[in-house]
Amino acid sequence: MPADEAHPTELSDAANTPAVGATAVRPIPPERLSVETNPTGKRLAVLTITALGVVYGDIGTSPLYALRECFKPEYGMAPSSTNVYGILSLIVWSLTVVVSVKYIVYVMRADNHGEGGILAMLALIIGKTTTHTRRRAVLVALGLFGAALLYGDGVITPAISVLGAMEGLNVVSGTFAHLVIPLTLVVLVGLFLVQRFGTARVGGTFGPIMVVWFLTIATLGLVEVMRAPRILLAINPMYAVNFFRDRGSAAFVLLGAVVLAVTGAEALYADMGHFGKKPIRLAWFWLVFPCLLLNYFGQGALVLRDPAAAANPFYLLAPRVMLYPLIALATAAAVIASQALISGAFSLTQQCVQLGYSPRVTIVHTSAREAGQIYIPEVNTALMVSCLLVVIGFGSSTALGAAYGIAVTGTMAITTVLFVVVAARRWNWPRWQALSLASAFLVVDLAFLSANALKILHGGWVPLAIAIVLFTLMTTWKHGRAILRERLTEITMPLDTFLTSVGHSTIPRVPGTAVFMTSDSGGAPVVLLHHLKHNKVLHEKMILLSVMTAGVPEVKNDDRLTVERLEHGFVRVVAHFGFMESPDVKEVMELLRRVGVRSKPLDTSYYLGREQLIPMRKAWKRGGLSMNMWRKRLFAVMSRNGRSAAEFFQLPPNRVVEIGTQIEF
Predict the structure, then answer these.
(1) Could you say which of 114, 139, 151, 264 would form a disulfide bridge with 59 (CB–CB 3.0 to 4.6 Å)?
(2) Is the pLDDT of residue 363 over 70?
(3) Which residues, at least 6 apart from 421, have a Cβ–Cβ distance to it below 8 Å?
């Protein structure tokens, strides 16, 4: 059997199946405690402040560049009174409709056992969609492409956030302009280099820093608003309506810059599992939203008073003596915003691996208490190189704005489509109600997406290219695994037939326990057949272990195992892990000992296969599955470079036996 046959595969509801013959098991190791659904008092305050440091870093740093971009020469918007009121009204109502209503009120309801994010939503849909194969395929493709776009967001967010903060040096003095890019690169390199230490040590400081940040930008805005309180009239949506009526197509194109004010909204949903809904909602309505509005209104009032301030209204709000501290605080906030997206990319990759859309990667848990704090070196390196390249290639946050918008608006539109499917199929909303809500949200999402689509040739192609490449890799891996499983079925002996042959044979039995990893819990593992062919012996205790991924984020230890005792010393075990968990075979063996399947660690051997894939030009088809030659070669390359099964399943390295197999496909 090839090593990758032990790879977690399809979503399964088997995680809800209790262990056969199991008694109550004391969890080993302790399970991660779920975030409270209704925290109160001190606990609620702690979660709310912590959420500020993770969830709102991205959207909280948008004032650095959002309004400034709206007055760039390419949009042709002079800083006149009509334009300022119209643009401010667009920003206010974008924040209200997209963030407050769509994400905070509605999308956050679509949690998968407390977890959020586009792949968690996709798991909800797949678990409920049992028919309409073509419709299911379309939904899966949309979800995967949305996830791929999030990686593009993870590349661009650190670059644009840190660049936007460093560009404050241009306000201090034009002589510092040449330092902006070098300092940005230094900060980004440092940010990615410390990822391996995890966020556990510094996570507690993120929230307080963001509290200081939001109070600071609110104060700066309030001072200017008090000079011209009439700017608050921009809250009237008629200013936005009249702006569109008077400016026409120019106003539509400007949406490509306005959308920068709502970047980071997807993080509200993606990070829901870490803090729960209540703290995130509380932080938004009581601190983040009011502070953002005050700062945007203050920038608008400043531009009305001094049209030249449109060049960089955020930093020009501050007294000159406060510029250096403000730049330092903005840089810290930008780093925190970047950290949220980097951590999100790690979590997204873990979900892809568990759901079978990515080869195994190195997943390092950086906290002994928090399962969600992980570090993936391969992803970290790829993000760092990509961020440095886009900073060097684009050179300014203005140039990066076009690339940023495509990634954000594309993900927002896909989230809306998936949400309406969840509402109709999981919650049984009336179709008219689900479609009406989706139509309202899609009008906004598609307007933003269309406006940003005009920038594809000016940088918008970057996140699209990243998404297309990653989408191709994910679908190739999933499709290749499906074909390979069917190919292996041809050479796999039914388990009942194998056990019957063992009963009628005189195969020697040697002391000890042998664990054979297999993704097929119904047949005799190919690696077992090869072992028997070459070594001509069997151990006294034989464990056939399958690791399956469930359609839930985490599986309780009491439901972890399905155990079936077979004849001739064989035991079939299916271990269930959630798509937010990392499989640990040592934990499985400990739980097995607790239910009576005992083995000595120093007397147990683990058997894996090492596959060598041989792509064949002649198409091999079975069950309607096929693959082009270039994708076969790509799949073979991905398989060779994936992390070994022994490392991924955390097997004792000195107890592993690998048997090679050549497979034509």
Answers:
(1) 264
(2) yes
(3) 125, 139
